[in-house]
């Protein structure tokens, strides 16, 4: 691999925009795929994304923008995907280039709904990327604070730590600190599960539970997350590291989290459908809940919180009753 | 011990008031000491504490109120102390009755400044209470939410678990869930340390750090707390239980926490003196910082956050510089 790799980011949302911003601090050129040509034209003219993180200004001369996904797959050595999990399969299906020899990092928090796989597994199974070429970028990190250049910490996970280290360097700056990890599976599942716990926090808030209960819920969530992940991939990991606990907290305690907001509406009495329509997007945690629940039917970790959220979202059980029962199972 | 013990609460603040309220759900009579006779007269007439948690209404016929501490020490089998740690020694010094055979629970979060001891040790060393008769009541629990009868979880710790169980029963109600623990030392130190981390969270907020950093700070705080407590009393404990992690979160994420508020003012540029004057009270964490720092000079756990708060509060170092250095030590 060359010393400075060619990197392209795939996605036009706030997290993709934040990652492009971070890379621009270090690289002379950053590839950026977004499917909407109008947004590309806008960025070229106005130096910021019209729809997301519009306060982040770009040096347009550094951006290699294209709405042709194959053009940027060809261009880059390292592909960073930051597309919402619900659309990732449709986007990946557009790729006709063979990219099985490229390095692929996922900044996607969730599960590919069509295959029920976490994104790393999806790349491996569906696109023949070997696991040592697959990595994950996780927070705790609200994209909005990256735009404001507020100090944030990222964890870059890859079983081949050299590749994690390479990307770490490309992302680090005076407002981004990075660390590497070899726990790609744990990091991916943590990033996915935290969205379910954020929905739970939102439901609890919507039902009128207070801060005392929220702290108990988060304390139980991290223990549940540990049990869940351990069943999938047992290894020595400190679940209180920023990539797991930090990521849970930044989402669970954020009033801006879409997942928490979605849960909050459910707690306040919206149906799942009407909450989704009201938000005009589907919270990642909605899909994650189903996948996690089904996966755990085999693994049988004790997961009362995931079970409660599943019962509310997919079995249309009464949130008030389900959460009343849940409170008996927490401690 | 009789089946229903006589219980008295010592203290007139919000946490004492909340505990009296909880006990009144289960007992026919609750002793309540507060030094201010005017407050007692007010409560008798108006059925609520004039100064704290005034929305909590009492059935006055259940309250055995007195401003004579010895009267209530004589009365009760179980003494619950909920006096701010800064005043606890002065109050205890008033006791002329021998209470070495009584059961003593501490709901005090901190260290007795004059002796540098956690409250349990202070009772043991200064008042000859055997350790098996000493217990601790910990949250996560804002008193304000008890007044509103919002579901809260308490942990009651005592080396003699039977005594913990007894008090658990007296405190539990439809809005209070209790669990018992035998980790009295860990619980006390956790309750004390969390105030230091809340000050750190406040300083960071005051300096302009955002939510991404706060989550990293909390993730590092719980790991630091674990290391600190392990040096003092090594035993099998899950630091992610509500009594430790939950208590840290409810304080660290609360905008109402006096410790966080105090830190926030320091971060915004107030001197320690002026912040204390402005708040017209001294945050518990101020004393805790010194005690924890000095104690750890011997124990040598890695405690960058406590060290940073100590440098700011006691060595009057520049918070901006100290926290900039701290960010290098977190991950």
TrEMBL record, chains A, B:
Name all Glycerol-3-phosphate dehydrogenase NAD-dependent C-terminal domain ranges.
183-323
Kindly list any coiled-coil regions of this protein: none
Instruction: Name any one Pfam family assigned in the record.
Output: NAD_Gly3P_dh_C
- One GO cellular component term: cytosol
InterPro entries for this protein: 6-PGluconate_DH-like_C_sf, 6PGD_dom2, G3P_DH_NAD-dep, G3P_DH_NAD-dep_C, G3P_DH_NAD-dep_N, NAD(P)-bd_dom_sf
Q: Which residues bind NAD(+)?
A: 87, 143, 258
Q: Which UniProt keywords apply?
A: Lipid biosynthesis, Lipid metabolism, NAD, Oxidoreductase, Phospholipid biosynthesis, Phospholipid metabolism
Q: What is this protein called?
A: Glycerol-3-phosphate dehydrogenase
GO BP annotations listed: carbohydrate metabolic process; glycerol-3-phosphate catabolic process; phospholipid biosynthetic process
Q: Which reaction does it catalyse?
A: sn-glycerol 3-phosphate + NADP(+) = dihydroxyacetone phosphate + NADPH + H(+)
Source organism, top-level taxon: Bacteria
Spell out the catalytic residues: 194
PANTHER family according to UniProt:
GLYCEROL-3-PHOSPHATE DEHYDROGENASE (PTHR11728), GLYCEROL-3-PHOSPHATE DEHYDROGENASE [NAD(+)] 2, CHLOROPLASTIC (PTHR11728:SF1)
Q: Which family does it belong to?
A: Belongs to the NAD-dependent glycerol-3-phosphate dehydrogenase family.
Every Glycerol-3-phosphate dehydrogenase NAD-dependent N-terminal domain range: 6-162
Q: Which NCBIfam families match?
A: PRK00094.1-4
GO MF, one term, reads: NAD binding
- The EC number(s) this enzyme carries: 1.1.1.94
Instruction: Name the positions where substrate binds.
Output: 109, 258-259
